[in-house]
Input
Amino acid sequence: MKSHLLPDYKVTIDRETCTVCRGCVIQCTFNVYSFNKEKNRIDIDANKCVDCQRCITFCPENSITVAPTPIQYKQNASWDRENIRNIVKQAEAGGILLTGMGCDKPDFTFFDRLLLNASQVTNPSIDPIREPMELRTYLGSKPSLVNLTSTGESWTDISLASPQLQVETPIIFSAMSFGSVNLNVQEALARTAVSSGTYFNVGEGGLNPRLNKYADHLVLQVASGRFGVHKKYLDAGAAIEIKIGQGAKPGIGGHLPGEKVTEEVSATRMIPKGTDAISPAPHHDIYSIEDLSQLISVIKEATDYSKPVIVKIAAVHNSAAIASGIVRAGADIIAIDGMRGSTGAAPQVIRDNVGIPIEMAIASVDSRLNQEGIRNRVSLIAGGGIRSSSDVVKAIALGADACYIATAALIAMGCTVCQKCYTGKCPWGITTMDPVISRRLNPDIAAKRVENLIRAWSLEIKEMLGGMGINSVESLRGNRHQLRGVGLTERELEILGIRMVGS
Amino acid sequence: MPTMHASSSEVYTIDAQGLDTRHLNQAVRKSVNNGHREIELLNVTGQRYIAAGLQGDLQIDIHGTPGNDIGAFMDGPTIRVHGNAQDGCGNTMNSGEIVVHGDVGDITGLSARGGRIFVRGNAGYRTGVHMKEFQGSRPIIVIGGSAGDYLGEYMAGGVVLLLGLGLEGGVHQADFVGTGMHGGVIYLRGEVRGIGREVAILDTTEEDRRFIEGLLKDYTKHFNVGVKDVGEGSFKKLIPVSSRPYGTLYTY
Output
């Protein structure tokens, strides 16, 4: 069948400056370039280009340009390029369209319509360079009453304390499983978690022995596939996360295709090599809040109540009521993943149409738990579309205790968000399992880049806090007076629990 | 406070009467930490998560009815339930053995990666759901009677054997057997009401029959019954027709 697909990109090489070094031929994993021996030049097949910009970055002569193709489908506001392309692809292959990374549609971002406050004259601002500024926070269930007992000379706290996760900055690396990303990426994130005093969630792909030495800074997942979950695994991490849903694909399971289940992935997931690793849509032992309560309890029993249990849900229409149930089920931490959250592979139709933005979810959950008087019993982690330190600050002001980031960390390593993670050909060596291409990602350099990012964001968060006259990130949590909305409807402002700019 | 007393020689006895789940499990863990290898629980009435995450060579006898998730994440111990067990028996277990002298509830052996579960009577829905196998370990569930719908759903490995004892009309009432199955094998005696589209029913081979025979012997030993009591008649096997049931689902 002749494909009717038009190329997305126009690829040009400046023949004046090109030295035919063939670097682009080696760098491109999608086979856009080939060396033409007869003409001693590089041939281009632009149809295969995904705009990952690997060739541009590594062309020593800066000879390559990749730009959106000037070739347009006939202009039509309804039948736009994406709609037509999707139909053509499906007409030719007849399957569910896969994509990678988070929702790329413009209309679901509220962070950009929120503005932060700063102190002027009254409640003076604080200079974080010369005054202490606390970014450390503790995640976990807090007692409803502080119970002190006197021993004559001093007081001892005998409150029923739950285990806590101590984070030095309110930024945690959210779940990226071995299989969705390769071990070099996981190791870089684990190292950064150690050096930055935070945590890396290894996702549901099991725990590779190479990561054992970072275990104190790892969050380990129990998801519906239960891959690699066993007693030693539960014992290893700093916290256990029960994954119910993911912002990029709420309500659906996952299938790691057999091609990606290599020898090493199979050993880590504890399944046979080459078989599909299927994560069913629901956990088959969780059909209700009561059932969730059982899984939380059995994990706590199996780990002797030594570590917090996180329940991760996708942000959906009833998140507030669901979160209330999760608190009552005994979770210590709830992670909420907004609809812009990223993924290694998801059906595009789900990614772009299901769920709600994290801003609305975190605000409504925080409000609901406060109304019910149970907010102290749980910490909230907001994830899914956190792109900058200001997004972190805004999410915390809306009610989060800390944020999950993933895409931002991958971009720090080299990811250009080309959205082809599911192909296994990631030219930046991030999501590919190919042992040769994986080597493009040096864990030492990647860890340094991510560490720099966390340092930079933490400094920026301190600046913003100081400006507001706040010296502790815990004093920002749910502090919605520090936010104002611009260009939002009355109802949107009400759900976010904030006022309009100027009021 | 839990009441405990050491009884004859090696066996450590815990009376579960009046203990809630958390205290009973605390008492069990404590006795294991104190070096006891044989433990007996009396008057168990629905306490959950018994032996969850326990490791090593332990013998645990349970008198009464344990609650959900008995032996979850377990790695090594042998549990004998002198009564019925409820849902999630052997949930995500790694190795060991659970022998139930009665019936079990739903999702028996969910996601188990190894170990063996013997049930004298019947099992509920979704028995063996998403069981796996890995390197030398292969989970095995043997059910004396029958099991409910979605038997072996999403199974990625392991073995389920239904003896079909006491089966009325020779037909297991389970429907959607093996839905989403992409590994492992279900042996059963008698017909089934309906099977998933991912599986096929085949005759057993000589090798299968030898394997089944071994399990039947174990069944007679565990439940102290004669060879005649495990019934007659040949077994069929259900196996997946593809290890990639979702291979053509997507467009890249």
Observations:
- The longest strand of chain B covers residues 38-45.
- Chain B has a mean pLDDT of 93.
